[in-house]
Amino acid sequence: MDHFLYRDGALYAEDVPVAEIAATVGTPFYLYSTATLLRHYRLFDEALKGTEHLVCYAMKAAGNQAIIKTLAEAGAGMDVVSEGEYRRARAAGVPGDKIVFSGVGKTAQEMRTALLGGIRQFNVESEPEMLLLDQVAQSLGTVAPITVRVNPDVDAQTHAKIATGKSENKFGIPIARAREVYAQAAALPGLQVVGIDVHIGSQLTRLEPFRQAYQKVAELTEALRADGHDIRRLDLGGGLGIPYTRSNEAPPLPTEYGQLIKEVLGDLGCEIEIEPGRLIAGNAGILVSSVIYVKAGEGRDFLILDAAMNDLIRPAMYEAWHDIVPLVEPAAGVEQRPYDIVGPVCETGDTFARDRMMPPLAAGDLVAFRSAGAYGAVMASEYNARPLVPEVLVKGDQFAVIRRRPTFDELINRDTIPAWL
Ligand code: LLP
């Protein structure tokens, strides 16, 4: 459920007509709903009620500080994967002890920043990383709290580009070697083992792969405790999928996911961390765009939009489906027709949808890409020298630009011309 609904024939974001924001900000732009963000965060929080837990929002999904602050004020921690994300979270007011640091390629510089600024834990992904973190922590006269990310070798049954829990993926250490690696970690004075971490992939639409992975984590918890390690925290990663289209089979709900966690891991007495990104931000955001031209092609019509693959890469990158809806609600019974919906970028890959059934549209009409809140704005680029599009946040009947559109001068003046030219 989200808060982008038609009211009196027009698409609203909470209590604001989306067209009104478009008139102020210009298209394209990303638009987020506070109520939807909070609703999704609270679903997870409620689902784990009765168990000590922290929902660490995976801010890679949508990292604007206004979004982070909205969630942090409701109690969320953050999952970060780079110094940039760490600094963003801190700038938005998230305390260090609510930030977990994930990622396969943490640098010494990133480790230093987090150790000095405060960190809940590092989710260590390899032995070389473990050795480096030990050295960095010792050089600062401190001890780094860690979990080791284990790779449970389960099939997440999702798109190959976003599956992370198979042994051939670059993530984590093979679970079969976990005891050896924990023994090594325990011997390093700069590290303190606090738990185990696992994350098997994104956009999972079944609970079964989670169950398989979490059962392996439960067994490992017992084995590691028997080896004398203090396993008090389990970071279970993110990955719960969202419905991208109404006709889709609905993925499991956070309540069912929470039930599963309690069922498989509830008896261990561990604090639970989860790192959802997509389920919190995905359906809390839309991308609003205008039709530039309707072009009659050979046997098909093209809707050429002012948004392009550089603004929303998911269709080009993962063949992802996004519902695309007009801001003016189509009259009942209006005949739909197929369009190829494309952007202005000079690549055939700049195609959002083929043969998509839409009501008849004309130049100047506005449309919204639904479910674009996660992995939308954050994956945008300036390809074709197209400035990053603005982000806007709605709360009730108010809206605010939370990242403005850069000027062309800003874009151009980042280049420097060498003296020899
Ligand atoms: N934790 C870790 C360690 C992760 O790598 C990820 C996502 C998450 C949590 C959050 O997963 P989520 O709850 O959002 O599924 N760009 C792709 C998705 C990449 C996901 C990367 N890791 C897309 O647009 O589908």
UniProtKB/TrEMBL annotation:
<dbReference type="GO" id="GO:0009089">
    <property type="term" value="P:lysine biosynthetic process via diaminopimelate"/>
</dbReference>
<comment type="subunit">
    <text>Homodimer.</text>
</comment>
<feature type="binding site">
    <location>
        <position position="318"/>
    </location>
    <ligand>
        <name>substrate</name>
    </ligand>
</feature>
<dbReference type="GO" id="GO:0008836">
    <property type="term" value="F:diaminopimelate decarboxylase activity"/>
</dbReference>
<feature type="binding site">
    <location>
        <position position="278"/>
    </location>
    <ligand>
        <name>substrate</name>
    </ligand>
</feature>
<protein>
    <recommendedName>
        <fullName>Diaminopimelate decarboxylase</fullName>
        <ecNumber>4.1.1.20</ecNumber>
    </recommendedName>
</protein>
<feature type="modified residue" description="N6-(pyridoxal phosphate)lysine">
    <location>
        <position position="60"/>
    </location>
</feature>
<dbReference type="GO" id="GO:0030170">
    <property type="term" value="F:pyridoxal phosphate binding"/>
</dbReference>
<dbReference type="Pfam" id="PF00278">
    <property type="entry name" value="Orn_DAP_Arg_deC"/>
</dbReference>
<keyword id="KW-0457">Lysine biosynthesis</keyword>
<feature type="binding site">
    <location>
        <position position="347"/>
    </location>
    <ligand>
        <name>substrate</name>
    </ligand>
</feature>
<comment type="pathway">
    <text>Amino-acid biosynthesis; L-lysine biosynthesis via DAP pathway; L-lysine from DL-2,6-diaminopimelate: step 1/1.</text>
</comment>
<keyword id="KW-0210">Decarboxylase</keyword>
<dbReference type="InterPro" id="IPR029066">
    <property type="entry name" value="PLP-binding_barrel"/>
</dbReference>
<dbReference type="InterPro" id="IPR002986">
    <property type="entry name" value="DAP_deCOOHase_LysA"/>
</dbReference>
<dbReference type="InterPro" id="IPR000183">
    <property type="entry name" value="Orn/DAP/Arg_de-COase"/>
</dbReference>
<feature type="domain" description="Orn/DAP/Arg decarboxylase 2 C-terminal">
    <location>
        <begin position="30"/>
        <end position="373"/>
    </location>
</feature>
<dbReference type="InterPro" id="IPR022657">
    <property type="entry name" value="De-COase2_CS"/>
</dbReference>
<dbReference type="Pfam" id="PF02784">
    <property type="entry name" value="Orn_Arg_deC_N"/>
</dbReference>
<keyword id="KW-0028">Amino-acid biosynthesis</keyword>
<comment type="function">
    <text>Specifically catalyzes the decarboxylation of meso-diaminopimelate (meso-DAP) to L-lysine.</text>
</comment>
<keyword id="KW-0663">Pyridoxal phosphate</keyword>
<feature type="active site" description="Proton donor">
    <location>
        <position position="346"/>
    </location>
</feature>
<dbReference type="InterPro" id="IPR009006">
    <property type="entry name" value="Ala_racemase/Decarboxylase_C"/>
</dbReference>
<dbReference type="InterPro" id="IPR022643">
    <property type="entry name" value="De-COase2_C"/>
</dbReference>
<feature type="domain" description="Orn/DAP/Arg decarboxylase 2 N-terminal">
    <location>
        <begin position="36"/>
        <end position="281"/>
    </location>
</feature>
<comment type="similarity">
    <text>Belongs to the Orn/Lys/Arg decarboxylase class-II family. LysA subfamily.</text>
</comment>
<keyword id="KW-0456">Lyase</keyword>
<feature type="binding site">
    <location>
        <position position="375"/>
    </location>
    <ligand>
        <name>substrate</name>
    </ligand>
</feature>
<feature type="binding site">
    <location>
        <position position="314"/>
    </location>
    <ligand>
        <name>substrate</name>
    </ligand>
</feature>
<feature type="binding site">
    <location>
        <begin position="275"/>
        <end position="278"/>
    </location>
    <ligand>
        <name>pyridoxal 5'-phosphate</name>
    </ligand>
</feature>
<feature type="binding site">
    <location>
        <position position="375"/>
    </location>
    <ligand>
        <name>pyridoxal 5'-phosphate</name>
    </ligand>
</feature>
<feature type="binding site">
    <location>
        <position position="239"/>
    </location>
    <ligand>
        <name>pyridoxal 5'-phosphate</name>
    </ligand>
</feature>
<dbReference type="InterPro" id="IPR022644">
    <property type="entry name" value="De-COase2_N"/>
</dbReference>
